[in-house]
Structures are given as structure tokens and as C-alpha cells.
């Protein structure tokens, strides 16, 4: 077969590789505690299921949906942005439905990146930013997220010439994989940077509503004038335990939404209308369901952070996401540590290097598993003698 060259540039998807290793260990009869993939383990709340049940029975929902989302869905997103962030959106021109935010994130590159165009991609990051740049023929330029900068990009270090050539930049807070958060003053700085260099600023806000204690995550669109240069991706996947439903949205710059729509109308035909109705129900309901889920995640975070700290780590509880990002002990690479832990304890965590070269030296724990399993994971690490050792 004469396969396209672009396919060969794409490394195997991180979790596909991990699944293979997991299967090997499972075959040895070891009980695996999976703290790998970040997929909510709790079911979609009942009020959403009920709405979907009714909506799916209605024949008016069985035909092709409108390309950019149903008017009800777009209005619900605009209403939610106003209530949640104080951001006004025109549901006609500044909101579009997505088949999960991953779909929109991948497709925005096809609207903004030409052959050889640089795209500014945080590193470590959600792998799709980099692979979608490659698929579009662009040049992913890694922007390091370093611990000493609280995992925020150092905009001042991006060379002027590179900034001028780049068409797009991604930011993602609350951040996967580091669990870091950003405040409005950071967003203000990147918005000015994007304006100065005529760059489309893409904010991935998938974890906007997975936050703990008193922390509330801002939207980049809260910054004055951000709508001129920014598009924001959000999703019902993480906040409402709806990963399998494939429903999300992009909001912000009219021009960027229109460009994304050109790509999408030629590739997909929108999200099932009954799913959009269920999403309207989720977004319109009081945030009671997200509060309840966050209380569960928060307690799990406490358990695992405390557990690792008893083994020599010095971690602070993340303010959002369901990830703990921690350094591997001195003398091991990320992959070596993760393989060692899996083989000796059956606890599966993810090597930081899978999220980019600046993730080397770290591992990611996802707390999407029950409390008793998290406690047991800590016990197993302890018994196996796994401890954090600082580099000398
Ligand atoms: C999970 C995730 C997404 C994609 O979620 P969808 O289910 O496609 O909406 C996007 N960005 C980040 C950082 C994620 O972790």
C-alpha cells in the first residue's frame, strides 16, 4: 500500500502503548490498579441520562443536526459562559458544537496551520496538539512548561522572529498533565503576546469545572479584548462524566469559529441532537453535580498526595484536574520508574516523557479510581520500598 507520509510521522498514541504493557502484566496474574488514563470512573448524572432517554425517543432528533450545533445548544453554552465566567457570547457566531473537544482541537490546526507553519505547543502537553500540528503539515515548536515557572510558559523567552511566523499557540489550564492552574494576569500577558504577533490563541479549558476547595478556574475570554484573538475549547466530558458521549464546544473569536466551521462542515455532520439536548440539560442545571464529583476527587487527591508525601515526595495538592504530577526518584528515567512500579506493585501510572521531552523526569497519576484502591496503591508502593530520592 502507498500510505501517506504524514502517517509515519505520528508516534503510537501513548495510551495504546501503555495498554500493551498492561496486558502483559495482567497475563502474569497481577491485579492492576490503573491510575493511568484520565477518564472519570463515575457514571453520568441521572438527570442528564433521563433527558437523553426522552430526547432520543423523539423522531425530530433523528435527522442530521445543524453543522454548528442546535440553536438550543449554542444558547445554553452562551448562557453558561455568562453565568460561570461573566463572558458574553453571541450564540450565532461565537459558539460552535464539537464532537468532543478533541475533535475541535485537532481540526483547528487544519484551519490555521499550513505546510511548514510553526505552532507554539506547550511541552509537556495533551498529545493531540503536537500530532494534529504534524498531520496538518506544520512544525510543532515546544514551549517548555517548567516547575520553576509553575508550569506556565515563559512568553518572554519566545524569539520574536518565531512568534511572528507562528499562526497558533495553545494554553491549557487547569493543565493536563501537570495539574497546574493559571490566573487572569497570565491570560492577560498571553493575549497581549498573541495580539502583538497576530497569533490565534487556543485555550483548552477541558478541566474548568474539575477544581477543589475554594479554587475557581477563569476563562481566557474574561480578559478584555481576548475575543479578538482567542478561541476556547471546552467539553462536558470531564465535568459531567460524559467522555463517551462526545460533546463539546468552541467559543470566542468569530473569525476562528468560522474558519473551524469550514473544516468541520467538510469532515463531519455535527453531534446527535439528542446528545445536544442532554448537554443543554447538564449546562442549565445547578452546578450541584459537579460539586458532588469534585468533593469525591478532592478527597482522593488528599489521600494520594499524603500517601506520596509519606514516601518522601514533597507535593502540594493540585487546585484542579484529576492528575498528580510528580518527579521520579533520582537515577531512573520516567519509563524506567513507571515500568519498575508496574512490575513490582501492579500500580499503573504514566511516564511524563509520554507528554513531551520536558515531561521527562516526571510521572502522572490519575485519581480516577476508588478511594480504597488509591489507599491500596499507596500501601503497595510503601511495601515495595518505593521512595522519592532527590538528585544529589
Ligand atoms: C480529556 C481532554 C480533552 C478532550 O476531551 P473530549 O472528551 O474530547 O472533550 C481535551 N483536552 C485535554 C487537556 C484533556 O485532558
Description:
- The chain has 392 residues and is α/β, with parallel strands linked by helices.
- The chain folds into two domains: 5-43 and 288-383, Alpha-Beta Complex (Aspartate Aminotransferase, domain 1), CATH 3.90.1150; 46-285, Type I PLP-dependent aspartate aminotransferase-like (Major domain) (Aspartate Aminotransferase, domain 2).
- Helix content is 40%, strand content 13%.
- The chain is built from 13 helices and twelve strands.
- The chain has helices at 5-8, 14-27, 46-56, 71-85, 101-112, 128-135, 160-165, 184-197, 254-265, 273-284, 288-310, 334-345, 371-383; strands at 33-34, 95-98, 118-123, 139-144, 168-171, 200-204, 230-235, 248-252, 323-327, 347-348, 350-351, 362-366.
- It has a seven-stranded mixed sheet, with helices on both faces. A three-stranded antiparallel sheet has the order 9-12-11. A two-stranded parallel ribbon has the order 1-10.
- Helix 8 links the parallel strand 5 (168-171) and strand 6 (200-204).
- Helix 4 (71-85) packs parallel to helix 10 (273-284).
- The longest helix is centred in the C-terminal third of the chain and has 23 residues, at 288-310.
- The radius of gyration is 21 Å and the shape is globular.
- The termini are far apart.
